[in-house]
Structure formats: structure tokens, C-alpha cells
Write a structure and sequence with these properties.
Helix content is 21%, strand content 35%. The structure holds fe (ii) ion (FE2).
Length: 180
């Protein structure tokens, strides 16, 4: 039986309201993984994009708690630069293709120029079915060389969130706009 978007939304909402995100993040990841393993869920919610559509689609936004379930479909390479999600957390779920994810360590915060400087900490490949939780302030950068489909759960709709000004210590500027 197909796991539906509304069932995933209800499962996430119950966890957020009952346990809170830090205690419940592991269970949320489990439910996202369950959705990623369901071929019907993927075909229903992460369809191909036409040339006039954006890669990102907000599939569900919860009016009580504010979390969102988003579908991201990239048909071409997408290079993300180091970023956080402002005041929000996020769960990334890889439905199709591969993402090379780098996590960054903050080496200097709230400096005179209000820039957060970071250096790479670890790197891993997210494959189909892989899920990862990024807490508020976790700096990361995804690199997608081939077409990918992703599920992303956001604590609040990231379209409305101000991002931190982040630069890699060995780069002049690393504030990116793609693949966030
Ligand atoms: Fe991100």
C-alpha cells in the first residue's frame, strides 16, 4: 500500500508536537526514508519538471507548526555553496541520483564584518534512500553532478528565512544561490 504525502505530513506533525525536533529528528528521518522507498510516493510527488518550472516545489506546509515538505528535482548539475538554514532545521532525503554533501565547521562567528567563516569538516555521498538531519546552524553544501530527486523537510518554509553570511576560509566569497 502506498505511503501518501498526507500520511507523511501527519507522522511528522505528530512527532514535532509530541517530542519536538531535537528528540524526534531520528523518527522523522525514518518516516522520510519510508517515503523514499515507496516508488508510488516518488512518482506522485517528485515528477519531472518542465523547462518553465522551478526545481523546488512546496508539497505541504503545516499551518500549525510551520514545517514544510518540499520536492526538489534537478535535471542538470546543481552546485551548492556553504550555507545554513537561518533559524530553521532541515531533513534531506535522497530519492534518486547522488548528492556529494560537505559539512563545514565554523571557525569564526560574528566577526566584525558579520561573516561566519567555515572550513570543511567531512564529506559523504547521499544515495537513494539516504536521509540526513541538519540542526539549526549546521553548515553544509550539496554538490549534484547528475540529475537528482530529493525530499526536503524544513522546520519553516525556507523561502521566507534569512540566511547567514557564510564564507569558506580559503575562498573570497562562497555565498551561493543554487542547491540550498
Ligand atoms: Fe541546505
Amino acid at each position: 500500500m502506498t505511503y501518501t504525502l498526507s500520511e507523511l505530513a501527519l507522522d511528522i506533525k505528530n512527532i514535532i508536537q509530541t517530542n519536538g525536533i531535537l528528540e524526534g529528528s531520528g523518527r522523522i528521518c525514518s518516516f522520510v526514508s519510508k517515503a523514499l522507498m515507496d516508488k508510488n510516493f516518488i512518482s506522485d510527488n517528485l515528477p519531472d519538471r518542465t523547462s518553465d518550472q522551478k526545481p523546488r516545489e512546496v508539497l505541504y506546509e503545516d499551518k500549525d507548526t510551520g514545517f514544510c515538505i518540499c520536492g526538489h528535482v534537478y535535471h542538470t548539475e546543481a552546485i551548492g555553496f556553504p550555507h545554513d538554514h537561518g533559524s530553521s532545521w532541515a531533513v534531506y532525503g535522497q530519492a534518486d541520483g547522488e548528492t556529494e554533501m560537505t559539512e563545514w565547521e565554523i571557525i569564526k562567528d560574528n566577526s566584525d564584518d558579520d561573516v561566519i567563516y567555515v572550513k570543511p569538516n567531512k564529506k559523504y555521498i547521499m544515495k537513494s534512500g539516504d536521509v540526513h538531519f541538519y540542526a539549526q546552524g549546521d553548515v553544509h553544501s550539496p554538490l549534484r553532478k547528475e540529475p537528482v530527486r530529493l525530499l526536503r523537510i524544513e522546520g519553516v518554509n525556507l523561502d521566507n528565512i534569512k540566511r547567514s553570511n557564510i564564507k569558506a576560509e580559503d575562498q573570497k566569497s562562497s555565498q551561493g544561490t543554487v542547491g540550498k
